Write the structure tokens for this entry.
Amino acid sequence: MAATLYTYPENWRAFKAQIAAQYSGARLKIASTSPAFTFGQSNRSPVFLSNFPLGKVPAYQGDDGFCLFESNAIAHYLSNDALRGSTPQASAQVLQWVSFADSEIIPPASAWVFPTLGIMQFNKQATEQAKEEVKRVLAVLNQHLNTRTFLVGERVSLADVTVVCSLLWLYKQVSLLSFSLIKLFVSPLSNLHNYHFVQFLAFNNFSILSESISVLLFKIVISLAKKFAEMQPKKETPAKKEKGSKEGEKKKEEKKATPAEEEMDECEAALASEPKAKDPFAHLPKSSFIMDEFKRKYSNEDTLTVALPYFWDHFDREGFSIWHSEYRFPEELTMSFMSCNLITGMFQRLDKLRKNAFASVILFGANNDSCITGIWVFRGQDLAFTLSDDWQIDYESYTWRKLDVDSEECKTMVKEYFAWEGEFKHVGKPFNQGKIFK
Ligand SMILES: N[C@@H](CCC(=O)N[C@@H](CS)C(=O)NCC(=O)O)C(=O)O
């Protein structure tokens, strides 16, 4: 059976139905752009209104003529039993969370976000109240997820789909508001953050979404960081104070600034401006091994003849450690492009570790038969992930084994992973369609 879902592009309510259909295998055509459907026009036409009297989207029409409005009902209809909850208890719990999303998340989220879109008049007291309410509701979710992977039972259900979609909208909209949301949403609510945006959607990489949620989340965090950086009082540089007629030249000079400033990206800028953000490596004695210098060699020179000897000549075994990583759920690795997203997403999320870590990670194998393993060089003798909440997102999905830096095994692995060639005996698979990340 085929069917059409009328909506507008990127409608989070329609995502619920689209994701449910993707899970259950139901075929669904999306009519979201003209000439098939023009939101604001098509939904006001007599023919549309005769099927959907509210004139709202998403709206579902089966090829058999069956029509349905209300996004939750459409998502329910497109689901399979597993998504709906296969026991009376589970299906009631699914309904519980679907209702929770609609009546607990959406109203305060709307009260918070609508004024910023000009849809509602701004009222400071109402906004503050809405923020508190969102925070309270998300804390409930966070608590629930403390010991669970999914909202209901041990697998994805419509509860996850619905709650995630209602949050997706909130994340997207509020990302325009203020950096304080990073604190509100990302740090204290780490269970929620891990669960929703990384574990669930990112792992499943829904093709119906215009981009994977992990990328979206990354963009949101970046835009929050940017917003925050913009909000910070600008540092008055001497050059600026002397503002004279040669504006153009001055600007160029300012731009040169210090190498540190030059290399700062938005994330780092935000981090740098955070009140007293602690350097998690501050307790370690200074090391003679400069990661940046090694990385420069590695990027610019031949690996086997220059970068590798440089690495071992300069490696500081007291100040650094070497680890082998292996993805724990290879059976979940289906399409290799998804696995690539998983790895690049991880690297993006760990970007702040850039000056203290190096990794060469390889996706071995092909679609539906692959594994992800890698070699990591970390500052210190422990895994760095536990030093910051932000870094823990991916780390539990891997097994980590510290290598004896003097062992032959370590030497071989470092050589093979750095050079992306060799037998990779420990992988136990031919190194055929491997994809490499560093
Ligand atoms: N509760 C409904 C809400 C649907 C709804 O409000 N849709 C809006 C767009 S998000 C709409 O189509 N508005 C058009 C209109 O009011 O004319 C659902 O979840 O499907």
